[in-house]
Design a protein that fits this description.
The protein is an alpha/beta fold. It has a single domain, classed as NADP-dependent oxidoreductase domain (TIM Barrel, Alpha-Beta Barrel). The chain is built from 14 helices and 12 strands. The strands form 3 sheets. The protein has an 8-stranded parallel β-barrel with strand order 3-4-5-8-9-10-11-12, surrounded by 6 helices. Strands 1-2 form a two-stranded antiparallel sheet. Helix 1 crosses helix 2, helix 3 crosses helix 4 and helix 5 packs parallel to helix 6. Bound molecules: NADP nicotinamide-adenine-dinucleotide phosphate (NAP).
Amino acid sequence: MHTVRIGQNGEEIPAAGLGCMGMSGGYGPANDTESIATIHAALDAGLRLIDTGDFYGMGHNEMLVGDALKGGKRHKAFLSVKFGALHGPDGVLMGYDLRPAAVKNFLTYSLRRLRTDYVDLYQPARYDRTVPIEDTLGAIFDLRSAGYVRHIGLSEVSGRTLRRVSQIYPISALQAEYSLFSRGIEGEVLPAARELKIPLVAYGVLSRGLISDATLDNQVTMGEVRARMPRFAPSNYMRNRALIEALAGIAQQRGVSIVQLAFAWLRSRGDDIMPLIGARRREQLAEALKGLALTLSPEELSAIEQSVPHEAVAGERYGPQAMRHLDSELSG
Ligand SMILES: NC(=O)c1ccc[n+]([C@@H]2O[C@H](COP(=O)([O-])OP(=O)(O)OC[C@H]3O[C@@H](n4cnc5c(N)ncnc54)[C@H](OP(=O)(O)O)[C@@H]3O)[C@@H](O)[C@H]2O)c1
């Protein structure tokens, strides 16, 4: 697998990562033993980027990752942590807290849960307009100067915001949703990241499991994340399923799974894109890695894009409340 440089003078790491959110129950019950085995399998396969968030499973995910990295494995991982989301005990998102003191407090807890004394990439999960983002990033910059954080990242910001803050702080990576079903970033966000030479960490490559053989087999379980996603609402789901049927034909012709086709398509979008594999089982990880190793022909790429015209995808990528927190959707 090719590598991507993180930060101007930073190290090069393999251009894909393991996203651990699903290991803390977002998509239904997960098994900690299998989750840890999946993290180990990712590191054994040469991946380094391990993505978590302090609010994934309300701390469970970081503790799981910390457990997986015990016994001398910490140095193998390039730990990416998102922070800032506030949830009630019922799991409902109450907003974000990105005040500088909150940033430092969040990191203190994350370091303990992750059993480490530094995080490689630290980023606010969203840009919350109640606190100037410059203040939030200033707090991460202080943490970086003190050695607790190695790189500053951002998630789901617009191209305009990325350009503005990059003039003040060194931004090493941008996390954004990018898949055959979610191509909005091609308008302004991706061109801005490319102009600034900031690699893009792509999440939701399978549109939360929608772009998969499980959709055709009606095997996708809702779980707490998908139940809130408009693309899984019954009327949208059936229209989206029809798009997956069209993709299935192309996958069959190539002799691969729909999941592999989705990862291969993302791989074709450029060497600066680092897909997150949202696997919670080793077999899923292996399937996705095979997809990333595929090269699609121009004919296959054009057949894929004809099968899934972006405007045919039914439903926004988040529900209305969550959409309001997406700077990337609000200002380009
Ligand atoms: N920056 C952000 O705002 C943000 C938001 C969301 C996620 N993320 C990060 O991105 C990562 C990936 O995103 P995601 O999990 O939401 O979406 P995703 O990768 O689009 O979908 C993951 C789901 O796809 C299904 N799947 C089926 N076959 C698979 C295979 N071979 N490999 C992997 N998954 C397969 C799995 O469902 P089952 O497990 O149910 O079978 C899995 O839960 C997360 O873990 C998290 O680290 C970031």
